[in-house]
Amino acid sequence: MRVLHIGKYFPPVAGGIEHFLADLAGAQSRAGIEVAALVHSAPGPKIDPDATSDSPIRVFRAPSFGQVLYAPVSPGFPIWLKRAIAELRPDLLHLHLPNTSALLALAIPAARRLPWVVHWHSDVVPSLIDRRLAAAYRLYRPFERMLLERSRAIIATSPTYLQASEALQPWQERCTVIPLGLDRERVTRPPANLVAEADRLWGKAELRVLTIGRLTYYKGHEYLIRAIAGLELSRLLIVGAGELRPQLEALVRSQGLNERVRLLGYQPQDRLSALLETSDVVCLPSIERTEAFGLVQLEAMHFAKPVVVSDILGSGTGWVVRLAQNGLLAEPRNVDALRACLARLRDDRELRQRLGLTGTMALDRELGLDSIVQRVSEVYQRVLR
């Protein structure tokens, strides 16, 4: 079987969907499927699209020129799609949405001749924070409907998100729920020198709180910073880059938290693993359904760390915690609720250890990558039949 994944970005670009796509494609390759991925190039150092590596996955990187409303601008994407199809000769296309460039498959005859599997990572949420998205979605939605109508199967990442997604309601009979998974071989234990370096960053805090994610409008970092302001003996490290960094730095200063909150920017996997290894709790304070699952929860499970997660209505974030029993849930945008959850974990070491252990067990039992790959392969086989 030959499969072409069409995504937004691919590692080394950081992000939950990006890492899942790489983990899934790598596991599929090991299972005997010939896999390639078509994505966009990203800002920063250029990556040779034809560079060889130890990975068995070929990655086509279509040049892009910045972003408009979080969507890559890539006029040449149709040419790269034709090239990828011609070189791989896939049996099907696996489209990871949301991704405006994936809509171009509607206009390419070679793509239309193939069956499509749509991986629905998130709705395009008409945000109450960034209201430009609501206007843009009115233009995007007709093409989204056409793509869903043309699809043979749709994969949703949680039953709660599937139930709440207005866009997916007409296509329920095509939908299968398969959660995201994590390649535990990729997230290796960090070397001792990086663990020692991470320990120095934490200092002597009694509660070490780690949050990982892009510094963008729906992640809720500002609520977590305010929660930490009223939580004694705690320290917060924020990993991620994004457009809101100046505002968050200003908030840290205004709250007098320069000694207890640090924004570390992007961190490579080995340093991120060291921070996870030495943390006490991982927090996901997101506030809108654009946060559909929260892959960082699986990384926390891998390191046996409890989580504090916003229980977003219609999202899969709370569903993961209920499935894995790996943490505490807080009302979104509620600083006091977030602080209360963190205080409970600060004061109860045994609870932290118990939640971390049950999370690790759930990762093996419910969210292992091998079972995810098998379930995705069953969808492929059904589509090809």
UniProtKB/TrEMBL annotation:
Q: Which GO terms describe its molecular function?
A: glycosyltransferase activity
Q: Which UniProt keywords apply?
A: Transferase
Limits of the Glycosyl transferase family domain: 205-356
* Any Pfam family matching the protein: Glycos_transf_1
Task: Report the superkingdom from the record.
Answer: Bacteria
Q: Which PANTHER family would you find in this protein's record?
A: SULFOQUINOVOSYL TRANSFERASE SQD2
Q: Does the keyword Transferase apply?
A: yes
The family database entries (SUPFAM superfamilies) matched by this protein are listed as:
UDP-Glycosyltransferase/glycogen phosphorylase (SSF53756)
Xref: InterPro entries = Glyco_trans_1, Glyco_trans_4-like_N, Glycosyltransferase_grp1
Residues in Glycosyltransferase subfamily 4-like N-terminal domain copies: 15-186
Q: What is this protein called?
A: Glycosyltransferase
